[in-house]
Amino acid sequence: MRNTDKLFFYTLFLLGIHATLGQNSYTDQWFANNCQYCKKTSYLDKKSSLATDAWHNAHTSFANTKFKEAKRYILTDNKTNDTLKTLLEKHILIQLGVENDAKQFFHTIGSTQNKSIKQFVYKSLGKLYFNEQKYDSAIIYYDKSLKIPITQSHYFTCEILENKAYIHLKNGAFETADSLSKKILRLYKQHQDSIQIARNYSNLGNLYFEQYKDKLAKKYFDSAYTYSKSLKDLELKSNIAYNLYMILEVSKKHEAAIKYYKEHKALNDSLQKQNAIWEVAQEKEAFNIAQKQTELDLKTAERNTFIAISAGILLLFVIGFIFYRKLIAQNKKIKKLNRELNETNTVKNQLFTIIAHDLRSPVARLKQLFQLRALKKNSEGISSDKNVTQIIDALSLLLDNLLNWSLSQSDLLSVQKEWFPLWQIIRQIELQYQSLIEEKGIQFTTNIEKSVLVYGDMEIFKIVIRNCLDNAIKFTPKNGKITISGTTENESFIVFITDSGIGIPEKILKSIFEIKSNKAQKDTTGRKSSGLGLMLTKSMIQLNGGTIKIQPNPTGGTIVNISLPYKNAA
Questions:
Q1: Is 122:110 a contact under the CB 8 Å cutoff?
Q2: Contact 545, 565 (CB under 8 A)
Q3: Where are the beta strands (DSSP E) in 32-137?
Q4: Range in 1-5, 119-123, 183-187, 342-346 the model is least confident about
Q5: Rounded Cα gap, residues 75 and 569, in angstroms
Q6: Interatomic CA distance for residues 195 and 234, integer angstroms
Q7: In which element (H, E) is residue 430 found?
Q8: pLDDT tens digits, residue range 435-484?
Q9: 504, exposed or middle or buried, with CB in 10 Å at 0-12, 13-18, 19+?
Q10: What is the three-class DSSP state of 84?
Q11: pTM of the model
């Protein structure tokens, strides 16, 4: 009977080892030891806890035999060391039966200086050779793994020692197998691991049974049976009961043997029922999961539909809002253009009124003079010639101002700025108006240093000074006084044109630079001035980068302030 059941006992011993490895696989634990998330979490909880960490999810899925899921997590992991990820990939291949590729990689990585990885790889190679029943190679790599001086858990050592014990048992080296099995038992007792203690007592019983040491075998089977009573592992309890049945049957104790055989059958029946219940529970769980997934998919579809509708409504709202804003902007632009057009029309009408007003009197006077000359009233000949000259000069200045103002308003006036001497320009304008100054007996004084240079368009600046001086002469009575002086202020030079004329009423002064037909003012000769020259002066001085300001003279008359950038030539 011993020869008939020899293979059976080898099988039982091997099943005991595989059950051990299946429940406490050091491979799973080694990967968990290299996981930052697992270091914060209990090892026993790792199989049921998923995290946002891809590496944790990868080795957890591997431990739960979800290899495709584990592979997917590995691909998404961009933080973990490549060697660790490759090791896990190769162990996935081993579980899928593709061992040659994994073995080749383990041999390559075995030369690493990392002792933890080297120990793990040697153990993995030993397991591969063990599975191939190349026991000599398996023992070599198991021994290499144990020699690396790194403290590991007792599961690591026990997994290796149990495989070595099986190899020695199969080779008939009973003493070595016995020594290893007792060493394993001591390790499990140190850690009070009841299920492993019961399993190893059973393995020792098988070992002695194989050597025909039935009394020792019975002793270890009884110890295994005692430890198994408090366990819930029905498969282990069934195997131990069957071992006792076999040892008692061999010892011709049939009545006691039948008792353990019945217990073995009852445990097997319970195990089958448990498995059936477990399968039903798994199917129910799978159904519940599928149902929840369906509900989740439905909710997801509803949510996506809601999001799509909301996004569409929001998009329409945004588009409508954009068009509304554009419409408002266009309306504002149209209103602005209409306002500017109305202002332009108003300015045009005012300008026509001013031009008509300024041209009417001199043209009427010229007509009257020519009519008198036609009647040969030579007594007025001399005065007529002087009046004609003055009228023509006034008309010429008016037309020049009108032309320059039109050019400045239409951006057709070319501006070329340069540094030029201020005193020379003022002197030129003074000579042009010398006859009018002498005719009215005006005391004219210029207090500008010859070294002062101002920056701007010289010709445009002449227009400014000419208009300002023309106004000063027109509104200054006979024997009056006009002074042109200057001073520096920051980086500008301010020209003051001060006259002792009739001054400007405060009401007109507020709108002096605006085009209005109702602000005409009479000069010392009784002629009305509309202020077109001052409007032109403001435009010209702004083109030159300067400013102009008109204020009353405290002693009577007007002060015109003109500022321009300057430097001193000295």
A1: yes
A2: yes
A3: none
A4: 1-5
A5: 79
A6: 11
A7: helix 422-432
A8: 888 888 999 999 998 888 988 888 888 888 888 888 888 888 989 999 99
A9: buried
A10: helix
A11: 0.45
Helix, strand, coil share of the chain (percent; to 5): 70, 10, 20
- Give me the pLDDT at residue 393, please: 61
Does pLDDT of 18 surpass 50? no
* DSSP structure class, residue 394: H
Q: 251 φ, ψ to 5°?
A: -80, 10
On whether the CB atoms of residues 197 and 189 are closer than 8 A, the answer is yes
Determine the Cα–Cα distance for residues 251 and 482; give it in Å rounded to an integer. Answer: 150
**Could you give phi then psi for residue 246, rounded to 5 degrees?**
-65, -45
HSE-CB at 318 with a 13 A cutoff on CA atoms is 6
- Cβ neighbours of residue 261 closer than 8 Å, sequence gap 6 or more: 241, 242, 245
Tokens of 285: 């769980």
Interstrand relation of 443-447 and 481-489 (parallel, antiparallel or unpaired): parallel
The dihedral built from the CA positions of residue 359, 365, 368 and 374, taken in this order, carries a sign that is: negative
Cα–Cα distance for residue pair 13/126, rounded to 1 Å = 18
Mapping DSSP to helix (H, G, I), strand (E, B) and coil, where does residue 413 land? Answer: coil
Higher pLDDT, 404 or 120: 120
| Dihedrals phi, psi of 396, to nearest 5 degrees | -65, -45
Is residue 208 very low, low, confident or very high in pLDDT (cuts 50, 70, 90)? confident
Radius of gyration of the chain measured on its C-alpha atoms: 58
The tokens of 368 are what? 């009257």
Beta bridge partners of 483: 445, 498
Work out the burial of residue 39: count CB atoms within 10 Å of its CB; fewer than 13 is exposed, 13-18 middle, 19 or more buried. exposed
The answer, yes or no, to whether residue 375 has pLDDT greater than 80, is: no
Q: Which token pair is 511?
A: 């709108």
Q: Would you say residue 252 has pLDDT above 70? A: yes
Residue 134 CA: distances (Å) to CA of 129, 146, 163, 167, 179? 5, 19, 12, 10, 22
**Could you give the residue ranges of the DSSP H alpha helices within 229-253?**
234-250
Say which residues have a Cβ less than 8 Å from residue 563's Cβ, sequence separation at least 6.
Answer: 489, 492, 493, 494, 495, 546, 547, 548
Q: Which H/E stretch holds residue 443? A: strand 443-447
Question: Rounded to whole angstroms, how far apart are CA atoms 505 and 192?
Answer: 115
413 phi and psi angles, rounded to 5 deg: -85, 120
List pLDDT tens digits, range 377-433.
554 544 445 556 666 666 666 565 555 555 555 555 677 888 989 899 899 888 888
Q: What is the mean pLDDT of residues 483-505?
A: 88
Q: Which amino acid is at 350?
A: Q
In the numeric block, which tokens belong to residue 123? 């153990």
Residue 392: both structure tokens together: 């023509």
